[in-house]
Sequence to fold (361 residues):
Amino acid sequence: MPLDPVAPAAAVGGGGPSVRPRNVTMREVAERLGVSIKTVSNVLNERPNVGPATRERVQQAIRELNYRPQVGAQQMRTGTTGLITLAIPSLAGTYFSELAQAFADEAQRRRRSIMLHSTAAGREEEASVLSGFTRVLGDGVVFNPLQIGEDVVAGLDRTIQPTVFIGEHLEETGLPAGSDYVRTDNASAAEDATRHLLDLGRTHVVYLGALDVVEAQQAHSTSRLRLCGFHRAIAEAGLGEGVVQTVPTWTQEGGLGAVQTLMREHPETDGIVCGNDDLARGVLLGLRGLGIDVPGQVSVIGHDNILESPFTTPPLTTIDPDKQALAATVLDLLIERIGGYDGPPRVVEAPYRLVVRGSAG
Fold:
């Protein structure tokens, strides 16, 4: 019979049954110090009505006894769990994995925990988020819808739990009660990226990243919004609509294949605005394979400022949507909702900036 992985060392090889360590209770912490359970609770919940000396004694006892509050007990005591569900399309993409880490970091600063929920299974899985899953998970939800229609969200009278939507797939009006929306102006960001290449003197600038899939046809999809910003900058410069190169996916592989096609069909290209940094990494690799100098012959710019962007060859110029600021804003709004705020839906715009590096300096 395999050993119980959490059995105490004294039980191993002792001939008796293994015993799981018993969880220390809040009462035991209080009795050790000769204070009330309410005092320990006040320290755990960071309430101000505890003196500094008492607070330090309680915190020391918690550390020594290795006390860990139980979620169920906390929920009965305070009505909350300290858990927030982050529902995002996938963890496979670089941007979403970094975004999840940003939320985890910001939640920890607020003494909360993030519970990840992938909606990669599709529309039905996203719909389950809006209907509260099969059961309520955590105190509130951060939700990045990708495949459900805007009409589905607009048709809700109220979200099941306090909810903050993120992403670009919603109208700013018609949000359901109990929710807020934090977005980045992707169209303006792509316009700034395109204008940067034009200001460098590039005259044959291409947008590489149009998706030929159903999701991309939504008016407020990321792909469509960034393409719209590209068209605006090109038109403003008097260059017509500009060349658009489609891709099968927003991945490094997608960028590699697309740039090979692009340079074969449009060898005059001297600037490329990529839908995201993963595409741009593939573009840089493809151009290098074709013997095309970056940025001497072709300038390249991405979007998302992922961790690998400064380490490409050459380092990638990109739009930084400030994932940490986005997460902080979202959690501030959501925690207000969890705390009882029930005002009308709020729409907040998160910041972005252009980060200039070697690929388009």
About this structure: The CA atoms of residues 15 and 316 lie 62 Å apart. Residues 9-69 form a domain with the 434 Repressor (Amino-terminal Domain) fold (CATH 1.10.260.40). The longest strand covers residues 158-166.
